[in-house]
Amino acid sequence: MECEDCGSRNVSRRDIEGHLLYECNLCGNLEGDDRAVMLIEELRVGRERGIDDEVIPLVSVLESTGIFKIVRASAGNPNRNEAPVVLFQSTKSDTAPIENLLRSLELANRKTRLLWLIELSLQHAIVYTLRPRFWRPPSDVSPDDLRVAQKDLVVLARQLRRDLSLSWWR
Ligand SMILES: [Zn+2]
To answer: Which of 33, 65, 97, 147 is 20 to 30 Å apart from 156, CA to CA?
Structure first.
């Protein structure tokens, strides 16, 4: 088999992050199931930017709008008592994209284990903070709560990606 990208015949079939794909040993091009290839490429680009694995899909879907700019994204760390958080800005001055995002979040919150909310703060411009709500003091949040929040990140990304293809987002 030849690499579609560079033509090299040095292509191996291997397990990459749980997906069986063909990888070119020369240029790194991936072939196989389109969805799996997309996921792995998204993961690789995210890792190069130093973004935590669990939050990469959410960062990717927010950026895919062409409207939201990520300021900081973290998947948190259950062992250090850190919760996941995504800080972002809107490049549009009107509130329509944020209204859409809040509508999506309301729908997504039916699928997530925790309730996620967006807070606003002013740091030169408005910065939006997407975070989970634990309904208890920060000192009582357990590593298990934080692992639940990390799993929610993937659910949020999936729900937002689905909504973005719907007419009311465009
Ligand atoms: Zn190649």
So the answer is: 33
- The total of structural domains in the chain comes to 2
Give pLDDT, residue 146: 96
If you measure from the C-alpha of residue 95 to the centroid of ligand 1, how many angstroms do you get, rounded to a whole number?
44
Find the 11 Cα to ligand 1 centroid distance in Å: 8
- Residues of the domain holding 18: 1-48
Nearest C-alpha neighbor of 89 from the set 35, 144, 126: 126
Q: How many CB atoms lie within 10 A of CB 35?
A: 9
pTM: 0.89
Judgement on whether residues 25 and 105 belong to the same structural domain of the protein: no
- pLDDT greater than 90 at residue 167: no
Looking at the structure, tell me whether residues 84 and 126 fall in a common domain. yes
CA of 26 to the centre of ligand 1 (A): 5
pLDDT at residue number 92: 94
What does the pLDDT look like over 1-41, one tens digit per residue? 899 999 999 999 999 999 999 999 999 999 999 999 999 99
Neighbours of ion ligand 1 (CB under 5 A): 3, 5-6, 8, 24, 26-27, 29
Cβ neighbours of residue 46 closer than 8 Å, sequence gap 6 or more: 53, 56, 59, 60
